[in-house]
Design brief:
It contains 5 helices and no strands. The chain is mostly helical.
Length: 149
């Protein structure tokens, strides 16, 4: 029972740190790409949760975004725990780098391709989002591996 509680605490801790990391990176990126978000040509693209009116997203968007990041991080952590023995690397740092790259290849790249096909946004913004995700997955992979040794 102690082992399960310890594992649960590690997964929750990982999810919280991962969600904070994602929030910081997404927020910094949004600051530098705000012209795309406020451009009237793209106003129909954004959800009403993100842009209920002109201006910055409301608190509901941030709460939902953090909740979704927590859910994703819990899932990424559980998958890591299940497959960690098969991830290359002698150190947990290297295992984390490989795992982050793995996450980017199975989640980030297909997500980018889907957005490119489905959403009418400037491709530059999609590349910025892909870069954001790459950074989050690489750093997140290292965090996951280090915390869940």
């Amino acid at each position: 029972m102690k082992k399960i509680v310890k594992l649960f605490i590690k997964v929750v801790l990982t999810a919280i740190i991962f969600a904070i990391l994602a929030l910081i990176i997404h927020s910094a990126s949004a600051y530098f790409t705000m012209d795309y978000y406020t451009n009237p040509d793209y106003s129909g693209v954004w959800s009403t949760l993100m842009m209920p009116e002109d201006g910055a997203p409301g608190i509901n968007f941030y709460v939902t975004s953090i909740l979704f990041s927590l859910i994703g991080a819990v899932l990424y952590t559980i998958v890591y725990i299940i497959i960690r023995a098969s991830i290359p690397g002698r150190t947990y740092f290297k295992k984390g780098l490989f795992y982050g790259l793995f996450l980017f290849l199975i989640a980030g790249v297909p997500g980018f391709l889907s957005l490119y096909l489905l959403i009418n946004l400037p491709v530059v913004l999609l590349y910025v989002w892909a870069l954001e995700n790459f950074i989050i997955y690489i750093i997140g992979g290292v965090l996951i591996a280090e915390i869940n040794r």
